[in-house]
Write the structure tokens for this entry.
Amino acid sequence: MSAETVGGVSATASPVANSSGSVTNQAIQVLQGPYITNTYGGGIQCQGPTRNFTPYVTGTASASKPWEPYYDDPVYDISDNSGAFDEDDNPIGDGIIDNPGRILFHKKTRTGQKDNYSLGIGFSMTWSTPTDKNLQDLCKKAAQTQIELNSQLAANKRLDFEIARLKNCGQLLKEGIRFAPGTRYAKVCEDVQVSGVNFMVPHVHKIPSTSSSSPSQREALQSLDSDPSALLGAPLQTRSSFVSP
């Protein structure tokens, strides 16, 4: 039996189903880097704890175009008032729409269309530490020893340099060769001292007597030293003189 038409009106079923959707997958990847390695020379390398701090910002946006917040939904005339009669010969509906396809008016219907936005802000952090503490302590001890050894070697090199500078500057000072005072390289040897050249050691000389005197003379000198007035000589004598004209 075919039911394509009912009273001259097409009744073919034509169902329509629309489905749409979107899925967005986002993930934050934490990359764990290698341990921080310190090298101290002599083949000594120590790895310390590592902290990784990774900030991130994510965002998504979705929208439909063209933007239509409302659409016109037609309202059809489904009245059925004629086509048959009752027992009293009054017109009644016969089950068939009187004006199929007639649009009475359009009504505004919301589409539900909207934009979607999302924003994510955060950070990820990892903390990595070596599991064998004894190896870390041994490596730190070896590193400290290597540092002390390097310091001693540097001190030895410095001592060799200063001794060489002292020797060369002293030899040049003995030969009377030196930088002019106040010049650029005068400071190279300014703190070097050579005895008898640019530095005199404090000392005392004994001056011997250059003349000899008899005992009587020495006694006279001693008497003069004991009586300072004797150095003045005898008292002065004055006398008057007359000059004739």
Remarks:
- The chain has two helices and ten strands.
- The longest strand covers residues 50-62.
- Confidence is low (pLDDT under 50) at residues 1-13, 240-245.
